[in-house]
Amino acid sequence: MDEIEIGDHFTMMIKNGITHISVKPDTTVELEMVQKVVQHQREIQKGSPYLVLLDVSKAYGVTREAREYTSSEAVEGLQIAMAMLTQSLPIRLLANFFIKFDNPPAPTKMFNDYDLAISWLESYR
């Protein structure tokens, strides 16, 4: 599948059975943005759960409302497991907070290496 643009802030594609979602540079992820991504994810995945690689390497931040939405019933059934990818310390701290306290609906882990993230996701096939 070719990469698609989702608004001005995200790209998405399915590659080797993994949904790749990337946040564009300097984006502060807000609730409305996440809702749009989830809508596209439902359409592209045709209602089936997928492994998800979320690249937040270039994100600037994430609002509390966006974090809460991504761990709500609204996203249940979309993910088998999710690997989050970043080398940014502030984003790693936010992501680890999300994983620990917001209780995402699927197994979720933070990575700073793409290959390790993919290997971890593959373990859920």
Characteristics:
Transcription Regulator spoIIAA; globular; single chain; 125 residues
What does this structure look like?
- The protein has 125 residues and is of the alpha/beta class.
- The chain has a single domain (4-122), classed as STAS domain (Transcription Regulator spoIIAA, 2-Layer Sandwich), CATH 3.30.750.24.
- 34% of the residues lie in helices and 29% in strands.
- The protein is built from four helices and eight strands; from the N terminus they run E-E-E-E-H-E-E-H-E-H-E-H.
- It has helices spanning 31-44, 64-69, 89-101, 114-122, and strands spanning 4-6, 10-15, 18-23, 28-29, 50-55, 61-62, 79-85, 108-111.
- A six-stranded mixed sheet has the order 1-2-3-5-7-8, with helices on both faces. Strands 4-6 form a two-stranded parallel ribbon.
- Strand 7 (79-85), helix 3 and strand 8 (108-111) form a beta-alpha-beta unit.
- It is globular and about 30 Å long.
- Residues 12-125 form the DUF7793 domain.
- Pfam families: DUF7793.
- It comes from Parvicella tangerina.
- This is DUF7793 domain-containing protein.
